[in-house]
């Protein structure tokens, strides 16, 4: 896991991204409020999230780093390009495909004239970097309530 994280960090830094990490013990404000996740959303349930207090929890996503960064970034000095790798925690039953603790990496770009073509180009370049240029890569439109637009990536095995 460390090797792929280091490799992806190097890849994105080569494209001008900052690598930013945040606290694993997070404020409810950044983990949910700043992500527009309503108070009654199932993800905020005690059965889904590891709460320490009413206001502190084990982060369930790396997204809080986006909010923290946008609050501090001086956009008069240029665009924002960042990735945020890290460990996240969810109340999942551990089995062959689920774990209560896993690694997540997400990215954010804020600039003028950014389009879906930019996201597509970045995802294709990343997949080719990781899996090789001989793989077939497909992006499928998808719906996720927390991102817009949303796509899923398929990569051929051979």
From TrEMBL:
GO terms for biological process: phenylalanyl-tRNA aminoacylation. It catalyses: tRNA(Phe) + L-phenylalanine + ATP = L-phenylalanyl-tRNA(Phe) + AMP + diphosphate + H(+). GO terms for molecular function: ATP binding; catalytic activity, acting on a protein; phenylalanine-tRNA ligase activity; transferase activity; tRNA binding. The keyword Ubl conjugation does not apply. Pfam families: tRNA-synt_2d. PROSITE patterns: AA_TRNA_LIGASE_II. Its EC number is 6.1.1.20. Keywords: Aminoacyl-tRNA synthetase, ATP-binding, Ligase, Nucleotide-binding, Protein biosynthesis. One of its GO terms (cellular component) is cytoplasm. It comes from the Bacteria. InterPro entries: aa-tRNA-synth_II (IPR006195), aa-tRNA-synth_II/BPL/LPL (IPR045864), Phenylalanyl-tRNA_Synthase (IPR002319). Residues 1-155 form the Aminoacyl-transfer RNA synthetases class-II family profile domain. Coiled coil: none annotated. The keyword Aminoacyl-tRNA synthetase applies. This is phenylalanine--tRNA ligase. It comes from Lacticaseibacillus casei. The gene is pheS.
